[in-house]
Structure formats: structure tokens, C-alpha cells
Amino acid sequence: MQEAKETSVKISVEGLNAWFNTNQVLKDISMDIAEKRITAIIGPSGCGKSTFVRCLNRMHEVVPKARVTGRVLLDGEDIYSADVDPVDIRRRVGMVFQKPNPFPTMSVYDNVAAGLRLMGVRDRARLDRVVKKSLEMSALWDEVKGELNKSGASLSGGQQQRLCIARALAVEPEVILMDEPCSALDPIATAKIEDLIAELKKDYTVIIVTHNMQQAARVSDYTAFFFLGELIEYEATRELFESPADKRTEDYITGRFG
Amino acid sequence: MVRNRFQKEMEELRKDVRKMAEHAKNGVETSVLSLKNQDVEMAESIFAREDESDILNLGIDDRGMKLTALQQPVARDLRFISTMMKVSDNYERVCDLTVKIAEITLKTAKKPLLKPLVDIPRMAQTIIEMIDINTMAIEKWKVDEIGVLNEKDDLIDALYDQVYRELLTFMIKDPRTIDDATHLLFVARYLERIGDIVAKTGARIHYMITGERIWIK
Amino acid sequence: MRKRFSPDTMFEFAVGAVAFTGVILLAVLLLGELVLGAMPSIKTFGVGFLFETTWDPVFEKFGALAFIYGTLLSSFLAMLIGVPLSLGIAIYLAEVASSNVRTLISPVIELMAAIPSVIIGLWGIFVFAPFMRDYIATPLAKYLGFLPFFSGPAFGLSFLTAGFILAFMIIPIVSSITREALLAVPVLQKEGALALGATRWEMIVMTVLPYSRAAIFGAVIIGLGRAIGETMAVTMVIGNTPQLAASLLAPGYSMAAVIANEFTEATGDLYLSALIEIGLILFIISILVNASSRLLVWRYFEVRDSK
């Protein structure tokens, strides 16, 4: 993992286990996630990749009867320690979901500003500035700048997803989690978002879950392969797709199963 | 089994590359034999077969490109397809060189050879052994024998030096032999080149199987 | 040829006939009967009927204003008291309680709607009204008596008592519909808010309530419809005094109550006709309120499912 030596570790996962009720979904996961790089998580359905990512912003525990053990260090501090407020973590670690979920009763402007307002920001000038900047970063500004008051739900699917990305960016997180962000979109919308993700790398640490291996190959610097709740292989994307070390990885990415 | 069609196409690719190996082996054996026996007919049969190998190589390249474009191969599959295309190309160049050797047979057929050929056929034989090692490695998907290519390539280089010195001696002693000696020198040169190509092909096959790059000399 | 009498078309015809006769025709006929019966009163008193407070069977002078006032006031009080409580219960059950607690308590609350109105009325007369008078109305009159709402003597049977009873009766249905509407908010929306750094409560205010506001509004109007039409329980605790009192602690009368109470005693055609006219007014108000609420709630669930 030579590239990792040039950048620091943003998130360090140590012995992470996760359960839904009595069903163990993640088994002893340990990995270091590089700062300001794009890390892809791949694996067949049910391998735990979505659960893993939801443990990084403490969303897993929102589901009733869900449980987590182990440590997740964000800049060296365990987000699961008793004196940490999950709400704080979720501001520092943003999330974009599989299906775009803009708030339908809010306008485009209000959607993007929602996170800031939660933080208590009231100054209109500041909100205007941040909304514009976030929409520009998610390549949506030109398309909506004249109609910021339109309902968030009136946009196309691809636009809605970019709106959700802008909304996540507005609170200036350090890490952005994306759970299969393009699976509900058409190829052109997907391509736009992939370009966007590549840009985000400059300022954010990005972790993207995807069932589309070509996407992982196109977009990420590092790739982790999960299978049946375990981390099987984790290395530079080039290595994993050219000469994977584990046979299970190779069988999965060559389509022999999955 | 999953990806059945894909597997079948790759098997076809493998078979075609085996055929290319046969062409190359044949070319080397036949051209050197025709030179040794000064058999013009034999030499001419090589020209006839030259097109076959060309077409086969193009077919392999075409199939490889198609599989890459349509099947998104990764890892082992990707290394396999790209290597097969390279191997085929390499063997095609070997065939081109054997054609040149056959041309020399024609040029030197009018009078008896400068000297009976000993080292040159030995070079040819070593090359054939090297091609067999490559083919076996692909079939078995094992790299144990690839190391042997090193020695064999060294042997070919040594034989070439020998032939070079011998022919040089001839040319210094009697300038009238320069023409004939030069032809034979060229043949030795071509065989040395072929040896190099086959050795490099072995290195590439090693990468295909293990993902590791090595150098053979 | 075959299509005309196929099993399918006959089925459609049969079902359509039942729907038509069973419901619409009945409603139309009912309306017709009401108008017919109210005709004498309408002819005699005209529009002034709606604005006249006098209700004098002896001199045959009738006016509906006191009853309209009573129905509207008691319903309004029922909304004021009942809606916040219903909302609170619904939010608690949908967002705070564990699914075990929710499964246990929800049916209990819904069953409360099944309690016969007359039983609640009895409980009202013998238990609740005295309680109201002693522990709520009296202190209100004492300390806040300067306000017109709480002026005058503190009665047990009053607008306020009726308001409380009605609130108690609408809470089951309003909270249940609201609860279901809240539960129907997609998890994706809620998680979207949480992932942005919202606390539980912020998430509810930001996503759950706005998302289901149409259905909540509809539920409230359903409650209003019930309150307006509620007869027995109100009759028993409202005091049966036709007057336009400003004080909530005073006794009053409602449209449904007067019809129930005086129908059997109505001597004279004009008396009867006046009561029927009140029934007509009540019918129209109820239909309007109920229809609009059904439309709202139905549309909410329709739209949500299509997304």
C-alpha cells in the first residue's frame, strides 16, 4: 500500500462487530481509511458493506435492536466512546443514500440549508453563500440557480442526488459516506456523479459502497472486498483489480459468483 | 457454470495461441532444416504457410479486443487475454523471421554450403524446446519451468557467439567466402533474435500466471 | 355479442347497483326527506332562522342560533383540548415508544372509540361533571373570573364539560390516524435528517410532521366531524339550556342534543319542522366537514405510495 504512506489515516477501524438483533453482520473488521482519498467497498449482497459504512457515522444503531462493538477512531478518537454525541459525529461524517431523499416539503434552497439551520446558523448572507458554494460543488448550481424556491422533489433523479450531495456538503463534513449513490440513476447521471466524486477527493475523505465493480475500479484509490461480514482483501484499487491476493476476491470480481 | 460463453471464448483463444506456437515451431524447424539440406521445395512451403499465421494472429487480436470491450475482464482474465494477444504477436514475429531464413536458403541453394551446419541446428532445437516450455506453462498454468528459459537463452547466445567467431575466421582467411558467410551469420542472428523473443514471451507468461513481473536475462 | 352478458359485466353491474342504491341513493333520499320536512319551518322563518336565538315551543317562535353556537363552541373546545393530546399520543407511539409498547397500547386506544356514547355520557353526568365543577370550573371562576370566558357561576354541566367529553371521544380516532400517518413516513426521509446531524426531536419536526401534515390535517377534520355530530354524550353533559353565553362554564345546547331531546315531545307541525331544519343544517355541515377530510387523508396515502 505505497500510496497510503503519502497520506495520513482519517478513520481507523479496530475490531468492529455489528449485529441486527442476534444476527451478526460484521465480524472483527479492522482497517485504516486514508485521508482525502476515495475508498470503495465492494462485495456481494448481504456481505455487510452497507452496515459497515453505517457504523462509521453511527447510523447503524438507529435501527431498533442493532448493536455494535469495537472501536472506530476518527482522527484518533473513538466515536463510540461514552462521552461522544452521535449528532456531532454525523455532522463530521456526512452521508448520501442509495435512493435520493431530498425533503419534499422544502425548497431546493431550504434542503441545502437544512443542515446549517440545524447547527443554529441564522445569518441569511452566510446561508446564501454556503448554499451557492455547495450547489456549485455538486455541479447543480447552473441548473437550479434561477429556481431555488422550487420543491426539492421536483428535480430529476440525478439532480435530486446531486442536491442530496450538496446538502451533505453544506455542513462541511470531513468524511462523506456514499451508499450506492448511483444505483437508482441512469448512465449519464451516474457519469456526472462519478466526476463529482473524483473532484471531492481534493477536500474530503470519501467512502463509497458500490455493487458496480467497474464503478469502483473507475473511481476509487483503494478498494476493500467484503464477504459474509468479513474483510477479505483491502489494497490499492489497481492491485486488487489486476492481481488480487485472495481467490475469493478474484472469483467475485471476475464474476464467477456474486 | 457462470460466464459460460466467456469461458468458452477464452478457451478458443488459448487453442488459437497453441496453434500459433505450432506455426512458430514448425517455421523454425523447417526453415533451418531446409537450409541444412539445401531443400528449395521445403523452403518454399514456408512461404505458402506464412499467410496462415498472419491471419491466425489477426483473429486472435480481434477476439482479444472483443472480449476486452464486451466482458470487462479483470484480474486473471485480463492478464490472460492481454498476454495471449502479446504471445500471438510474438510468435508471428518469429514466423516472419523464419521466412527470412527460408529466403536465405533460396539464396544459398545454388552452391554447397560453406560448412556443414552444426551449431545453427542446435540453436533451432533449443528454440523449439523453449516454445514447448511456454506452451506447457500456459496449459498447466504453472511457472515452475519458466526459470529454465534463462539457461536455454544463455545457450543460444553462447552458440551465436561461437558461430560468429567461426564465420569471422572464415571471412578473414578467405575474403571470397564473405558473401556466403554473411548469409549464415544472418541466419544465426535471426535465430538469436527468435530466442530473445521466446524468452521474453516466457517472462510475460510468468506475469500472466502470478501477477509478478520477472526478467529473463 | 358475447361481451354484453359475460360474467364480468354482470358482476360489474351488480356491484354498481349495490353501491348506487346502498349509499348514494339513500343519501340523496335522506337529504330530500330533510328538505321536505323542514319546508314549513323554512317558509315560516326564512334565513332569519339561522340568526334567531329564541326557542319557544309555546309561542312557536324558533331560531337555531343558540344550537349552532353550542355545536360550534363545544366542537372548538374539543379540538383545542383533543388535538394537541392526540398529536402528543401519536408522536409518542410512532416515534418514541418501542414497537412492543406500541403494539400493546395502540389497540387499547382504538378500542376507546368503541365505547358507546351513552356510557360516556353517563360517566360524564355522574363522575366527570361533578369533578369538573369542583376541581376545575370553581377555581377557574374564582381566579380567572374577570375573563369573560370564565365569568359567572361554575356549573358542572357546561360548554367546557362538553368540550372535554368530546375531546375524550375524538382522541382515539385522531391519534390513530395521525399515528398511522407518522408511521408511514419513509425511513429514508427520517434517516436523511438524522444523518445530517439532527436530534430525534429535530428529525420529527423537520421531516416526520411536515411530510404527513396533509394526513394530520385530515385526521383533525375527521375528529371535528365526529365532534359536530356527536349526540348522546354531549346531550348528557352540556346542560340543555339554549343560550348564547360567553362563559365556557355556563350550560348550553347543541344541534344534535336538541333534536335528540325534543323530537319525541315535539307537538305541532312547526315545532317538528323547526327541529328537522336544525337536522338539515347539521347534516350539511357534517357532510362538508367529513368529505373534505376524507379527501385529504386519502390523497396523502395515495401520493406517498406512488413515490
Describe this structure in words.
- Chain A has 258 residues and is of the alpha/beta class.
- Helix content of chain A is 35%, strand content 26%.
- Chain A contains 10 helices and 10 strands.
- In chain A, helix 3 crosses helix 4 and helix 3 packs parallel to helix 6.
- The longest helix of chain A is centred in the middle third of the chain and has 14 residues.
- Chain A is globular, with a radius of gyration of 18 Å.
- Chain A starts with 8 loop residues before the first strand and ends in a 5-residue tail after the last helix.
- By secondary structure, chain B is an all-alpha fold.
- Chain B has a single domain, classed as Phosphate transport system protein phou homolog 2, domain 2 (Methane Monooxygenase Hydroxylase, Chain G, domain 1).
- Chain B is 83% helix and 0% strand.
- Chain B contains 6 helices and no strands.
- In chain B, helix 5 runs antiparallel to helix 6.
- The longest helix of chain B is centred in the first third of the chain and has 34 residues.
- The mean pLDDT of chain B is 94.
- Chain C has a single domain, classed as MetI-like fold.
- Helix content of chain C is 74%, strand content 1%.
- Chain C has 11 helices and 2 strands; from the N terminus they run αββαααααααααα.
- In chain C, helix 3 packs antiparallel against helix 5 and helix 4 crosses helix 5.
- The radius of gyration of chain C is 23 Å and the shape is flat.
- Chains in contact: A-B, A-C.
- At the A-C interface, helix 2, helix 3 and helix 6 of A face helix 6 and helix 7 of C.
How is this fold's topology laid out?
The complex is a heterotrimer of chains A (258), B (217) and C (307).
Chain A: E1 9-20, E2 23-34, E3 38-42, H1 49-55, E4 66-74, E5 77-78, H2 86-92, E6 93-96, H3 108-118, H4 124-137, H5 141-144, H6 157-170, E7 175-179, H7 187-200, E8 205-209, H8 213-219, E9 222-227, E10 230-236, H9 237-242, H10 247-253
Parallel strand pairs in A: 3-8, 3-9, 6-7, 7-8
Antiparallel strand pairs in A: 1-2, 1-4, 4-5, 9-10
Helix pairs in contact in A: 3-4, 3-6, 4-6
Chain B: H1 4-37, H2 40-71, H3 75-107, H4 119-140, H5 148-173, H6 178-210
Helix pairs in contact in B: 1-2, 1-3, 1-4, 2-3, 3-6, 4-5, 4-6, 5-6
Chain C: H1 7-45, E1 55-56, E2 61-62, H2 65-96, H3 99-112, H4 117-144, H5 159-183, H6 187-195, H7 200-211, H8 213-229, H9 232-237, H10 255-262, H11 269-306
Antiparallel strand pairs in C: 1-2
